[in-house]
Write a structure and sequence with these properties.
CATH superfamily: SGNH hydrolase
Structural class: alpha/beta
Number of helices: 7
Helix content: 40-55%
Order of helices and strands: HEHEHEHHEHEH
Number of domains: 1
CATH architecture: 3-Layer(aba) Sandwich
Largest sheet: 5 strands, parallel
């Protein structure tokens, strides 16, 4: 959720000894791992409606576009989208351990926090939940990317600044990568009114390439 405001082989000798054959076989076996294909990495996205394609045709949100970008750039990775519309950081924290166990991701993208603010939940709790999720993901061997959000001006300047700051603090404290604002170039665009659905909260399909554009430069180095 968000606010209006992605050889040739040499001929064998006729006679050879068993030890020589054994050595040859060992040499062949030793070369196989180097020639084996690299196992694709898993990118786990844990988010809310902004990542769950709320109000959009399936396959058009920024997470789906990310899968397409990975394929286009021949990066050995696939995406698991575990985003749920309306989810909070508490909800994400409650289900993260099972997701880590099920998918064994190399990268975890945390796109949560907006609904916490909409519901008036404690910023301290939001920060603590995100920090714990980052710790759990790192303990499972994954790199972490925090995706930040901003609130509209009517929430007040102080609240807005503290909300933005908590994402940066979690990223710094946990050694995670940070996308400061998922909706940069969308919510603050001159034509923002045309980029949102009628609810003035969820971006239209046309805005999702921009959202992926905000995430991709930060995510790619993690792969």
């Amino acid at each position: 959720m968000a606010f209006f405001f992605s050889a040739r082989a040499d001929t064998m000798r006729r006679h050879f000894t068993l030890p020589a054959l054994a050595l040859g076989c060992l040499g062949l076996a030793g070369s196989m791992p180097a020639a084996a294909a690299k196992t694709p990495a898993t990118v786990l996205v844990v988010g809310d409606s902004l990542s769950a394609e709320y109000g959009l045709p399936r396959g058009t949100g920024w997470v789906a576009l990310l899968e397409q970008r990975l394929a286009h750039e021949h990066i050995a990775a696939h995406v698991v989208n575990a985003s749920i519309s309306g989810d909070t950081t508490a909800g994400g924290r409650a289900r993260l351990r099972a997701l880590l166990k099920a998918h064994g991701p190399q990268v975890v993208v945390l796109e949560l926090g907006g609904n916490d603010a909409l519901r008036g939940l404690s910023l301290a709790a939001t920060q603590a939940n995100l920090a714990e999720m980052a710790r759990e993901a790192k303990a499972a061997g994954a790199r972490v990317l925090i995706v930040g959000m901003q609130m509209p001006p009517n929430y007040g300047r102080q609240y807005g600044e503290e909300f933005v700051a908590l994402f940066a603090k979690v990223a710094k404290d946990q050694g995670a990568a940070l996308v400061p604002f998922l909706l940069k170039g969308v919510a603050d665009a001159p034509n923002a009114d045309t980029l949102f659905q009628p609810d003035r909260i969820h971006p239209r399909e046309v805005a999702h390439p921009t959202m992926l554009g905000n995430v991709w430069p930060v995510l790619k180095p993690l792969l």
